[in-house]
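Subgroup meeting minutes
Present: P.N., E.W., G.H.
Scribe: E.W.

1. P.N. recapped why we're keeping a running log of single-chain structure predictions: easier to compare across weeks, and new members can see raw inputs and outputs side by side.
2. G.H. added today's entry (430 aa).
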Amino acid sequence: MAIDKNNPLEQQNTPDRNGSGGTNSDAANASTRRRKKPRRDGKGSNTQTNNPTTTASSKNKTRRGGKGSGQDSQALATQTRSATTAIDPDLALGDAADDAAAQAEGGIKAVGNQRIIPFMKIEKPMALLSLFMVIGSIIAIAVNGLNLGLDFTGGVSADVRYEQPVEQVEVVQALADNGFDDAVVQYLGTREELLVRLPPQSDNVDGLSASLTQALALPNNTANISNVNIIGSQVGNEVYLNSVMSLVLALVCMLGYVALRFQFKLSLGAVLSLFHDAIVTIGVFALFGFPFDLTVLAAILALIGYSLNDTIVVYDRIRENFRRVRGITPRQTIDLSLTETLRRTIMTISTVLLVVLAMLFLGGDGLYWFSVALFIGLLAGTYSSTYIASSIPLRMGLSRDDFVVKVKPEFEEEIVTFNDPKMFEQDNIK
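Output recorded in log:
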C-alpha cells in the first residue's frame, strides 16, 4: 500500500478531488466532459463572453467596419453624384451656380424658427381693392375733372411788397372784398414780400395795377406792386402737357432702371405700383375738387421717388433671399422678405409722415395742398410696395432661376457611340 501511494506515476495519472487532475486524464476525458448545451450567464452564450479572442476580434471588426462603412458611404455618395452628373450635367451646373450666388450674397441663410408673416395670404382681396381704387380714380378724373390752378389755366400774377409784415389770410380777404375771388397768395422769402395770383381778368395791365393797388391796401400798411404779368391760357396748356409728359417719362425711366438693376418681372411690378400711387392721388383730388397746381404736381413726382425707394429696398431683400435661402417656395420667400423689411418700412413712413403733418398744419397756405398730396400718396405708396409691387412678379412666375446666372463651361465632355455592324458580327463569331 505504501509503495502504491508513493508511486509517482500513479500520482500523475490519478485525478485530484479538487479538479486539478493529471494531464493524461484531462486529455482523455475532454470529450466526455463537453456539455451538450452552452452555459448561460445572462448575456449570451459563454462562447462569446468567455472567449476574449473572439470578443476582441469582433470589436476590431466593428471598428474597422465603422471606418470602412464611412469610407464606403462616401465613395457611394461620390459615385452616385458622379453618375447623376454624367446623366444630367445641367443639375450639377445649377447647384454650382446656386452656391456661387449664395456666396456672393454672404452665404447660405438658414430661416430656422423665424416667424414669417403671410402677407401674400390676402393677395387677391388686396388686388381687387387696388383695381377698384384705380378704376374709381379714372372715373372721377373723367367725370369731375381736375380743379386746375392758375399755373395751368393762366391768369394774373403780381409781385407785392408791404411796409410791415402781413398775414396771407388778410391779403386774400382784402382781395375778396374788392371782387378778386379765388386769389392765391404766397410768401417770397419774407413776410413783407408776396406773390399774388388771380384768375384771368378783363382789364389790361395798367388797369389791373391800379385796381390791385387799391384792393391790397390795408389799414396802416400800404402795398407797392412792382410787377404785373398776364399769363395766357395757351401757356397754361403747355405747362399742363409738359406736366403729363414729365410723369410718363418718370415712369418709363423707372421701368428701365429696375429692369437693368433687378429683373423685368420686378420692373413691371414697380412701375404698376407707381402708376397706382399717382393715379389714386390724382383721383382723390378730382373726387373732392381740391385745387391742382404745380405744387401738387411736385408732390406727385416726389411721391414717385419715395415709393420707388421703398420698393427697391423690398426687391433687394427678395433677390438676396432667393439666392441664399433654400427649401422654401417663392411665395414664402416673398413673405420672408416683406417680414424682414417691415420694421424698416414702419420707421421710414412714420418719420416722413411726421414731417408731412408738420408742413400740413404749420406750413401755411403755400404748402397746404402739397402736404395733402404727399399724405395721400404716402399711404398709397406704402400699401402698393407691399402688395402690388410684390404680388405682380409672383403672378408672373418669379423664381430662383431669375436671379441665378448659370454659365455653361467652355469645354464639355461628350460621349460618342459608334454603331458598326461588323463589330457585332465579330462578337457573334466569337
